[in-house]
Amino acid sequence: MSTWLSILIAFPVMAGVAWVFRFAGQSATSNKPFFRDMPFGVAFGYVVAAVAILLAFKIYFIDQVLFFRWAMQGLIIFTVSAFLFRLLGRLVGTAGSRKLFRSMPLTAAFGVMIVLAYAILAIFAPVFAPYGEEQVFAAANTLPGGDPATGGDPAHLLGTDQIGRDLMSRLIYGARNTVGIAFATTCLAFFIGGSLGFLAATIGGWLDQVLSRAVDVLMAIPALIFALLLMTIASAWSVKLGIPLTIFMILIIAIIDSTRVYRLARAVGVNIVVMDYIEAAKLRGEGLTYLIFREILPNATAPLLAEFGLRFCFVFLTIASLSFLGVGIQPPLADWGTMVRDLAQFINFAQFSPLTAALPILAAGAIALLTVAVNFIVDWMLQKSSGLKE
Amino acid sequence: MGSVTRIILQRLALGLLTLFIVSIVIFIAVNLLPGDFAEAILGQGATPEAVASIREGLGLDKPPITRYFDWLGGAIQGDLGSSFAQANFASFTGSDAASGTTVAEQIAPRFKNTLFLAGVTAAIAVPVSIFLGVLAALYRNSIFDRATNILTLSSISSPDFFLAYVLILFLSVLNPLLPSLSNIYDGMDFSERLVKSLLPALTLTLAVTAQMMRMTRAAIINLLASPYIEMARLKGISPMRVIVTHALPNALAPIITVIALNLAYLITGVVVVEVVFVYPGIGQLFVDSVKIRDIPVVQACCLIFAAAYILLNLSADVLSILSNPRLRHPK
Hints:
The complex is a heterodimer. Chain A is mainly α. Helix content of chain A is about 75%, strand content about 0%. Chain A is built from 16 helices and no strands. Chain B is mainly alpha-helical. Chain B folds into two domains: about 5-105, no CATH class; about 105-290, MetI-like fold, CATH 1.10.3720.10. Chain B is built from 16 helices and no strands. Chain B has helices at about 1-30, 35-40, 50-60, 65-75, 85-95, 105-140, 145-155, 160-175, 190-195, 200-225, 225-235, 240-270, 270-275, 280-290, 295-320, 325-330. The chains are: A mainly alpha, B mainly alpha. Chain B: Belongs to the binding-protein-dependent transport system permease family. Chain B: It is a multi-pass membrane protein. Chain B: Pfam families: BPD_transp_1, BPD_transp_1_N. Chain B: It comes from Pseudohalocynthiibacter aestuariivivens.
């Protein structure tokens, strides 16, 4: 309880320090406007920030909390590499890409860098991974670190799982499986939702009514709950038909998410359909396919692209959550959500073997890193297209 | 006010209709199961006699439409049937299937726990996010604004279990401040219950704060360009007071809507968090039933989640109408 008490005491103390800080600033600079007009809240904010930074230094250098050090080192490495990546983008490439990188905030550069890294990792997973994802070794339950004295094995840097599969390889193959399946699902959702949405916008009438009301009903059920309900039924069918559950999962999530895509595609499409060039194309006698793919689609790319990023995040998180709950991607496929669930108990050994405890965080962090990166890019794209300056 | 009541009644009727159709969708989905409940209860080694007796006991020999209305009628009266796990147990012990614990008795205490967790989270998240949003609007484009923006965007886009395990690592394992297992039971006193559910509540807070905070910030900044704010500034009022007493009341409508939507997320999105912390809520029950394919429980949980979701979305709708004169008097 003493920790809570010290936090409670810290606040009035910091408030006092803030008042002294402002007063000292005013006297020392003979009432410069910066200190004269400083509200008390801002002074307090400066003090809180200073205390936070001091506390961070104390934890880093004096307490030497390993996890905090790793997090800080990771943060610094990512910031520096994102900065270098943006610098590279500004110097190398075509005129268009150089211009793009010049206007890019650091967060967006970070996002692009991470997405590229994941794509490379996923495509060339067999090259990077030391072993196959399903390869079973005799040494099961090896600890990470690669040091035989602490229960490690130099051949398996991150150790092996309970039946002796190399965790590093499974982590790398996870990029291919988890991201690949999420990407395929999102593409399917966009294909279904996009084409139905544009169809409803072009044809209108009863088709529009039927589809829109059906989508309304499907959207009234919370997505994760609906997915879990359908997965229950799909698991029974997959046993009976012998079709892998993963295929059912792709279909179920694609259909649930296509309702959200449908909404957007229809809303964008309705605005495009009333344009004069659509009228002209119709008078030329163009067919429905031409209208949708050659006239509407090119003009709806920008909002759909931003939606694709967001949708991908949602799908990715839904699949990860389903796998984490044990009804998503099924073994023997390596997958991050399942890995988090299997390794979660090791977190309790953080005091004794930090590396082991870091394993579940590593797998969950791999998911978080990608979604954060994609969100940074989408945020930047939305801000750019809406012209918001604040 | 006549037109307002009419609009609200219209929305309410629409909500009820949606719920009715959703119940049909859930019923149809469940009936897509291969085989039927009786086979599912007894599993592989079922004798035809046992299957027939259970089928009769559960009323499975009736046509689907009758069964649907039986289920719906029961659900309205709070009777959600008895779970497979119970029926299976009863069939082995030879006792009557109906005498076991019903689904409603199983769900009721857990639903209360989930509501408690949502309440604790809302009590933390709503003030924090409005406070942060006001500060971010006040010091827009400063380092503080950018830092909160990046932090909240990161926390909302990370999976719930990542946030949960990071919190467990730092607040429970490395510094034993809070318990990482939320084993809550009846008869626990309030303070102990609060401490046990604080870590899941903090996780959920991190997940929902971002949207509310960004909405508060955006709604306030939208108003800052309007002439009456300019006037207030020219009168010499401090920036903080301009925002809190002049801008915030007019920005309340979108903020309330976002809060209601996030509360809907709190009720339905807790599944993962409840599993991580082994919190005995309805989400945990739902996932367990999904794994053993206990259809009556899955069906009932689904219906409750959908009802809560529709109700909160509806109240978001109604509140935004009530707080906006332009929507209150539609042309």
